[in-house]
Every structure is written in C-alpha cells, then in structure tokens.
Design goal:
By secondary structure, the chain is α/β, with parallel strands linked by helices. The protein is about 35% helix and about 20% strand. The strands form five sheets. Strands 13-16-17-11-10-18-19 form a seven-stranded mixed β-sheet, with helices on both faces. It has a five-stranded parallel β-sheet with strand order 7-6-5-8-9, with helices on both faces. Strands 3-4-20 form a three-stranded antiparallel β-sheet, with no helix packed on it. Strand 5, helix 5 and strand 6 form a beta-alpha-beta unit.
C-alpha cells in the first residue's frame, strides 16, 4: 500500500507519512466493521449521547486539531477555530434532533372500514438506510470532512459511517476520526461506528461495496460525477448525495449600485476572497449595471481587490488550476482583466497567490466564464437592462446560492427573487453567500450541478438523506417499535 503524506501547502514540502492508502481488503474490513455497529446505533438515546460526546471531544482536542489543520490547509488559526466551533455546535444540534424524534416523520392512520377501498391501521416512520460512505472535502477540514455535517447527520439517523479522507489533510483526518471513535466509547457504543480510509482507489471501492447504502460527497464536478455514475451503475444502485460546483450568481440593480457602490464593492471582495476564494458559496459571477453607477462600483471593487492579502491555496494542484483557469478566462474575447491573479510568493508562503478580478459584457459571457473557478477570483458582468441580465441567468446551471442587491421598494425586486430561486437552493437579499448557518431552515443544495439530488447537506433536514420510510400495517401494538405505539405521537390523516 502506498504511503499517505501530509503536505504543507504554504511551502509544498512533505511533513511526513501519516497513513497508507487502503487496498480493497482494507476497505472491505472498514465497511464490515462499521456495518456491524448498525444494531448498536439503533438505540436512539445512546446516539444522542454519542453526538454530545463527539462535541465535547473535539472541543477538548481543539488545540491539536487546529494546529494539524492549519499545517495541512494554510487556512489560518482564526478561521479553523471558528470552523471547529461550528462542528461542536452541529453535533449538539443533531443530538437535539435525535432527542426530539420528529425527524422520524411518524404518521398514524386509524382504520376506516367505510373508506373506499377500506383502510387498515397504518403506522409509518423512517428507518436508517444502512452504512454510509462520506467523502471529505478539501476546503473544510472539519465542517465538511471527518467530523462534518454528513457524518453528524448520518450518525444521528442511526447510520454507521466510513469516511474517505481527503488527501489534503490526512493527519487532521486521522486525529478527527480518533476523536469521534473515542467519543463513541464514552457513549457506550463501538468505536467502529466511524471508520476511516485513505486513497483514490479506496473511494471507488467504497462506492461499489455492497454494504454501503448511500454516499455523501463534497468536491469537484468531474470527481463527483464519476462517483455518482458509479453509484447508479451498481447491481443495486444507491443514493449519491453530491455537492459538485456552483457559481453563486449575484445581481446588483442600477439603483443599488448608484446608492451604495463602495459598501457593495467592499462586501463583494471580502466575500470572494474569504478563505482565498475556496468556499463552495463564493460569488463567482456578479451582474453589475453598465453605465456610470456600475463604473463607480467596479472601480471600488478594483481598489478593494488590490488590497486583498495574498495567501496559499489548499494544495499545489489547486494553485496550478486556479492560475491557469484565470489566465484562460482572461484571454477570452471581450474579457478584461481588471486585477490580474498571479503568484505572490512570500518568505513564509512561497506558494501564495494574489486575487484576481475579471470583467466582461453580458453578451460575451459564455464557455468557461459560466463555470466555477476555484480560488480568489470573480467575474463582473456588465448588463444594460433586465433582458441582458436575464440572458446571462438563462445560461447558468444550478447553484447553491443566488443573491440580489436591490432596494426593498424597487418594483422589480420581488420578481428578481422569484427568478433567482429557480437557480439556487438559497436566495440572499442584501448580503453575501459565504457563511452557511447550521439551522432548521437552512438549505445548502440546489439544482444540478450544485448538488446531484435536491436535498441539503446543512441544517436539520440533512438527516433525511440517510432515512427511508417504512409503514407497519395492522401490527399488534406490543410488536411495534416504541415510537409507533402511542397514537399521540402520530398525525392522523
């Protein structure tokens, strides 16, 4: 088996070996070990205890986890401190959902012989799908990786988890997995409720394994689509919940651009350079009106982008793709490079890059300008009127977010919100899409290619991905699961 190395993205140097890539036998053992814990996870109070123990455990090892993640991602201690706090909150959030039990979706129909056809007693609830494979993301070593939302929601549903670690942060993944496994023991559950594997081939072996019942994935369109197709091509196809790519369009009205150009430009640049542009919700395409109002906003954005601090990307491959991607877009007909993205080596970060800013007229926005470029760059699209803006929006695929910057009393504002909702799972008014709250009403998903299935990976309903409905018909009360025995727990239809 090949060694798994931890790499410092600031320098590109190896930090040493932390694991080995899993072969088929290792993957099989990891899946079988996790699957053997399915019955133990059926204890709902113990699952809630596991989630709370996991929250306590990541907090108790915060210093060690954050240091490892910063060394492997260059995301910085402040950002990672906040991300780890989010992870702890998310574990407790799902513990509360497990305690409440409403996620079970219990519905009880009383028998009705007079119905046509006659209706027997029916009691429906939701049960776990089985063992879940989770693919860790590069850009969130905590919140969308080993201890992230896919893992927390799957465990909350009663599904054991096998995580495929991301190669950008293997040491962090090992530490996080050990932390959750320790928490399982403290909650009286087997450590193997979560197992961990490394390696590209291990990911394919996981998706094909007959004991894997569903997959959660956050990553690129090519990688995600290959695994999605693999999941569908199995002898027994399984759900594949993938987050693949998103442009996250922003529309700025002429009136708003005229009244708040500096504030809007500053917010935009802060959003698209946050985390060196490596957020899945980064605004990558911004519709700005042509004319004087738009010109003022654009100039303010140029000034803010020039002031943005350089930084290292997550790995050398992403750095190469970012610089090449911006360069290719900048050479397209009609594209103007307002702030060139470039390498910006520093003594402590020789692999650092500087943010870029591109501009094009609406008619010239085609091809790769309509695709996500991962890293600190965005495209300002100058539109002349509503028809011009609509023409650009009509070329877009699905997105995680869409944002409107307008005055609330503008006559067209409500219609624009409805239009943007067709493109995305979350529509923002007057703010910026980076930052995703863990809350019951949150949707972090959208039409393809934002996600492969119209679900959410953040918020309370993320648990629904790992459940399926089962109806019990005319089953004696003594034989029913406890949650289905009391009519008071159900909803009569």
């Amino acid at each position: 088996m090949e060694p798994v190395l931890s790499i410092d993205p600031r320098t590109g140097q190896s930090r040493g070996q932390v694991a080995v890539e899993a072969d088929a036998a290792f993957v099989d053992a990891a899946v079988r070990a996790a699957s053997a814990t399915l019955d133990a996870l059926a204890d709902r109070p113990r699952r809630a205890a596991l989630l709370r123990a996991a929250a306590d455990a990541v907090e108790s090892r915060a210093t060690e986890l954050i240091a490892a993640a910063d060394a492997e991602t260059a995301l910085g201690v402040p950002r990672l401190t906040g991300e780890l706090a989010r992870v702890a909150y998310q574990f407790r959030f799902f513990a509360g959902i497990v305690d409440d039990g409403s996620y079970l979706g219990i519905v009880i129909d009383q028998p009705d012989p007079s119905a046509v056809p006659p209706r027997p007693e029916l009691r429906r609830w939701k049960v776990p799908l089985g063992t879940v494979a989770v693919f860790a993301a590069s850009n969130f070593p905590f919140a969308f990786s080993v201890p992230g939302g896919d893992t927390a929601s799957a465990l909350a549903a009663g599904c054991p988890v096998v995580v495929k670690a991301h190669p950008d942060h293997p040491q962090t993944s090992e530490l996080a997995a050990a932390t959750i496994r320790d928490a399982a023991g403290k909650a009286g559950l087997p450590a193997d409720v979560l197992t961990l594997v490394h390696g590209r081939q291990a990911g394919a072996d996981l998706v094909r394994h007959p004991l894997i019942s569903a997959v959660g994935f956050t990553g690129s369109i090519p990688g995600g689509r290959a695994l999605f197709d693999m999941a569908a091509a199995r002898p027994v196809p399984i759900p594949f919940y993938g987050e693949l790519g998103s442009l996250n369009p922003v529309l700025v009205t002429e009136r708003l651009a005229a009244s708040r150009p500096g504030e809007t430009a500053a917010g935009l640049v802060a959003s698209y350079t946050l985390g060196q542009g490596q957020f899945c919700t980064k605004p990558g395409l911004v519709l700005v009106p042509a004319g004087p109002a738009g010109d003022t906003l654009v100039q303010a954005a140029v000034s803010a982008a020039l002031d943005a601090a350089p930084g290292a990307l997550l790995d050398a491959r992403m750095r190469e793709h970012f610089l090449a991607g911006v360069a290719a877009r900048a050479t397209r007909p009609g594209v103007r490079s307002l702030v060139p993205a470039a390498a910006a080596p520093a003594d402590d970060a020789p692999q650092a890059v500087r943010a870029g800013l591109l501009e094009a007229d609406a008619a010239d926005v085609t091809g790769d300008l309509l695709e996500e470029c991962f890293g600190p760059v965005t495209v300002l699209v100058r539109y002349r009127d509503a028809a011009d803006a609509e023409a650009v929006l009509s070329r877009l695929g699905g997105n995680l977010t869409a944002t409107l910057h307008a005055d609330p009393d503008e006559p067209e504002a409500a219609a624009w919100l409805v239009r943007l909702a067709r493109l995305a799972g979350r529509v923002i008014f007057g703010g910026w899409p980076t930052g995703v709250a863990v809350a019951p009403a949150m949707t972090h998903g959208g039409p393809y290619p934002a996600t492969t299935t119209p679900t959410t990976s953040v918020g309370g309903t993320a648990i629904d991905r790992w459940l399926r409905p089962v109806t019990f018909q005319t089953v004696p009360a003594a034989l029913l699961p406890a949650e289905l025995q009391s009519p008071a727990r159900g909803v009569g239809l």
